[in-house]
Amino acid sequence: MKNIKKKTYEVNINRNFCKNCLICLNICPKKVFGLDDKYEIFVKYQEECIGCKLCENLCPDFAIEVDEI
């Protein structure tokens, strides 16, 4: 039986570009994002990312980058 390794991804938010529009929070199928106590978006469940890049592709400010690690 073959050992299949799950791909892992790293999601980064560039705070210099992010305007906190919350599109990523609303469109992520795995609910990777959360809101902190200041109601700013952050990566809450990094390990849940499946690499679909919906957040990266739909971010109007080009503030999100998703990389396979």
Helix-strand blueprint:
Blueprint: E1 9-13, H1 23-27, E2 33-35, E3 41-43, H2 54-58, E4 64-68
Antiparallel strand pairs: 1-4, 2-3
Describe this structure in words.
The chain has helices at 23-27, 54-58, and strands spanning 9-13, 33-35, 41-43, 64-68. The protein is of the alpha+beta class and 69 residues long. The chain has one domain (9-68): Alpha-Beta Plaits (2-Layer Sandwich). It has a two-stranded antiparallel ribbon with strand order 1-4. The protein has a two-stranded antiparallel sheet with strand order 2-3. The radius of gyration is 13 Å and the shape is elongated.
The stretches of 5 or more residues where confidence is low (pLDDT under 50) are none
Structural class: alpha+beta
Largest sheet composition: 2 strands, antiparallel
- End-to-end Cα distance, whole Å, is 24 Å
CATH architecture: 2-Layer Sandwich
Number of helices: 2
Helices and strands, in order, run as EHEEHE
Query: What number is the mean pLDDT?
Result: 95
Outline:
elongated
The CATH C-level class name? Alpha Beta
Question: What gyration radius follows from the Cα positions, in whole Å?
Answer: 13 Å
Count of spatially separate domains = 1
The helix content, as a percent range, equals: 10-25%
Strand-residue fraction? 15-25%
**CATH topology annotation:** Alpha-Beta Plaits
Q: Reading side by side through the largest sheet, how are the strands ordered?
A: 1-4
Q: Count all strands and give the number.
A: 4
